[in-house]
Fold this sequence. Notes:
Blueprint (H helix, E strand, L loop, with lengths): L12 H11 L4 H19 L2 H12 L4 H26 L5 E5 L1 H9 L4 E5 L6 H6 L7 E6 L4 H11 L4 E6 L5 H10 L3 E5 L9 E6 L2 E6 L1 H8 L3 E11 L2 E8 L8 H22 L16
Parallel strand pairs: 1-9, 2-5, 2-8, 3-4, 3-5
Antiparallel strand pairs: 6-7, 8-9
Helix pairs in contact: 2-4, 3-4, 9-10
Amino acid sequence: MVKQWAGTxxxxxxxxxxLIQMLRYIDVRVFYAFTALFVIPICLIxxxxxxxxxxxxxxxxxxxxxxxxxxxYLNHCLFAQVVIDKFAMxxxxxFDIKIEGYDYYLKLTKSPNAFIQLSSHIGNYEIAGxxxxxxxxxxxxxxxxxxxxxIMKNRSSIFKDTHIHMIPVSPDMSHLFEINSAISRGxxxxxxxxxxxxxxxxxxxxxxxxxxxxxxxPFSIATMHALDVVAVNVMKTSTKQYTIYITPLLYNKExxxxxxxxxxxxxxxxxxxxxxxxxxAQWYNYFDFWNKDE
Length: 294
């Protein structure tokens, strides 16, 4: 059984609006400290995510029990911080952004051809949308259709003066038509490659030592059109700093279609593993990501 994308942000609209108002006047570190001391300990006791992340740290990252427990706590603290940072951006706060691989990214934006940008639920990917701006191409980001109204409104407000267009994942799969249209116009299409968006067709890959299902769609779309592909991961490196890692995902476009999909998925997994070796506590898939029958 695969896990469908359910990327809605916790809380209701008035809570989101109140948080944004407070962040206009209060330093994010105050909220960091509050969540670390009072919110996260309760979450670790009541939420099943504690056991899920502990298992990831202990079994997949091969940490000892004490270190696994500490990193489970750290993981929840960091997740709270990236959520706070997202609302801080809505409130007008700025973060120091460093970018690795930007020259290659700019080269792709200057090409008349479309390209695919694959993301993951690690770090704080939303910051990429505010930072990787290129006048040469429109940017189309696949987003969860059930997201809160306040989140979508704030995203639209930030994106209004940019070339960024949001494509909500639709139950009737109509988002696929928008993706194909964007590709035909030679634009950038951003797709999460670690969650399923409607279709349950999967490709199994060895990820951190155990088989895990990946959505077939992102790799199929890229290879169908013989597009260049990059992995973009935005990792929190200090209180007010993020680093965007842009990595080309190379595959043999002359190979059979099946071989291309396998090769591209392997390249994606390799980069995802590299990021998690560097930032093990920034893995934010709070469900059993790996196949249970193994």
